[in-house]
Amino acid sequence: MVKENSVNQQSKKWLVPTLVVIIAVLLIAVVLLMYRGNASDTAEDVSAAATSDSAAASTAASTAASGSASGATDSDLTSVEARDPSDPVAVGDVNAPVGLVVFSDYQCPFCAKWSDETLPEMMKHVEDGNLRIEWREVNIFGEPSERGARAAYAAGLQDAYLEYHNALFANGEKPSEELLSEEGLIKLAGDLGLDESKFTADFQSPETAAAIAQHQQLGIDLGAYSTPAFLLGGQPIMGAQPASVFEAAFEQALAAKE
After folding, report:
1. Three-class SS state of 56
2. N or C, which terminus of the chain has less Cβ within 10 Å?
3. What is the pLDDT of residues 31-65, one digit of tens each?
4. Bridge partners for 134 per DSSP
5. How far apart are CA 130 and CA 75, in angstroms?
6. Which residues, listed in sequence order, are joined to residue 238 by a DSSP beta bridge?
7. How far apart are CA 131 and CA 252, in angstroms?
C-alpha cells in the first residue's frame, strides 16, 4: 500500500483523453434524458442513458481499449500495483509477471457485467501463475458503494474476497439496495459460511475504513472517475470491454516480460 501513496503526479493524466470523450457523451445523454422528462441522476439512469441513447460511449471506450492493447499509449503505470502479499482484495501470485488493477464500484452495472463475463477468463491466467489482480473500489456512487467495498475487504480478511465479490455481482447484476445495507452485507457473509462476528468487527473497523479510503483516493489521484477502469500491465483500459480486448492486452504484457 505504500506504493499507492507514491504515485507520480503525471500519472493523473492517464485517463484524461478517454474521459473527455466519455464525459461529453454522458452530458449529451443527460440532456436527452431531460428532454424526455426524466431528470433522475441516479447511477443506474446515467449508465442506461449512456448505453441506450449513444452507442458512441461504447465505441469511444473500445477505441481507447484497443489503443492500449496495441501499445498505442506510452504510459506505464505498473508502479500503481501494490504487490502486497497481505492485500486482502487481491488474487494471484504476488510475483506474477503481469498485474491487473481494477477500479470498480459495487453500484456500477458495467462493473458487474465485467465481473461476470471477463473476470472468469482473466482468472485462468491467475490460476496458471501469470496474472495478479488487485481491486481498488472508487465508490463514486456514494455510501452504499463504500459499504460494499468495506464488506468485500472484511471478507478478504477471511480469505474469501473473490467469493464475496462474486456474490455481490451475482448473475452479472449490481447488488440491490437491500443487499448493500449493513444488515444485508452481514447476512451475505453468514450465507457464505464466514465467521459473522469477525466479519462484522472487520467491516466496522477504522482500519478497514482507512484502507478503503486509501484505495478510493488512489482512483481519484489517477482520474478514475468512470468505472470500470483498468491498468493491465501498466496500460489503461476503459470500460467493460469484451474479454478479447483484455486477452490481447494480457498477451502483449506477458510477451514484454519474456
Report:
1. helix
2. C
3. 334 434 443 343 444 343 333 333 333 333 343 34
4. 90, 101
5. 21
6. 229
7. 13
Please enumerate in sequence order all residues whose Cβ is within 8 A of that of 101, keeping only pairs 6 or more positions apart, or say none: 80, 81, 133, 134, 135, 136, 230, 231, 232
Chunk the chain into consecutive blocks of 10 residues (it has 258) and report each block's average pLDDT, rounded to whole numbers.
45 48 42 40 39 35 40 70 98 98 98 98 98 98 98 99 99 98 99 99 99 97 95 96 97 95
Tell me the DSSP string of 73-84.
Answer: -----GGG----
Return the amino acid letter for 60: A
Strands 98-104 and 131-137: parallel
Phi, psi at 94, each rounded to 5°: -60, -25
| 8 A C-beta contact, residue 200 and residue 151 | no
Residue 255 is predicted with a pLDDT of 98
Is 136:103 a contact under the CB 8 Å cutoff?
yes
Q: Which three cell numbers stand for residue 91?
A: 488474487
Residue-level pLDDT at 45: 42
C-beta of residue 134 within 8 angstroms of C-beta of residue 87:
yes
User: What class has domain 3-257?
Assistant: alpha beta
Task: For residues 117 and 109, give the distance between their C-alpha atoms in angstroms, rounded to a whole number.
Answer: 12
Q: What is the pTM of this model?
A: 0.75
- Do the beta carbons of residue 19 and residue 223 sit within 8 Å? yes
Taking the CB of residue 197, how many other CB atoms lie within 10 A of it? 9
Bridge partners for 236 per DSSP? 231
Listed in order, strand segments (DSSP E) in 123-203 are: 131-137
Contact status, residue 195 vs residue 61, Cβ threshold 8 Å:
no
C-alpha cell belonging to residue 199: 466479519
* CB 25 within 8 Å of CB 58: no
CB contact at 8 A, 19 and 226: yes
